[in-house]
Amino acid sequence: MREQWSTKVGFILSSAGAAIGLGAIWKFPYMTGMNGGGAFFLLFIAFTLIIGLPLLIAEFIIGRGAQQEAVTAYKKLAPGTGWSIIGRWGVAGAFILLSFYSVVGGWVLIYAGMSLTGTVISPGADYEQLFSTITGSPLISITGLGLFLAIAILIVSFGIKDGIERANKIMMPLLFIFFIVLVIRSVTFTGAAEGLAFFLKPDFSKITAEGILYALGQSFFALAVGISVMVTYSSYLGKEVSLPFSAISVSIMNIFVSLLAGLAIFPVVFSFGLEPAEGPGLLFMVLPAAFAQMPMGEVFLSLFLLLFLFAIFTSAFSMVEIITAAMTAGKDRSRTKVAWLTGLVVFIAGIPAALSSNTLADFKIFGLTVFDASDFLVSNIMLPGGCFLIALFIGLKMDRSLMQNEFLSSSSLGAGSFQVWFQIMRWVTPITILVVFLYSLGII
Question: Which of 4, 94, 335, 415 is deepest in the core (most CB within 10 A)?
Answer without folding.
Answer: 94
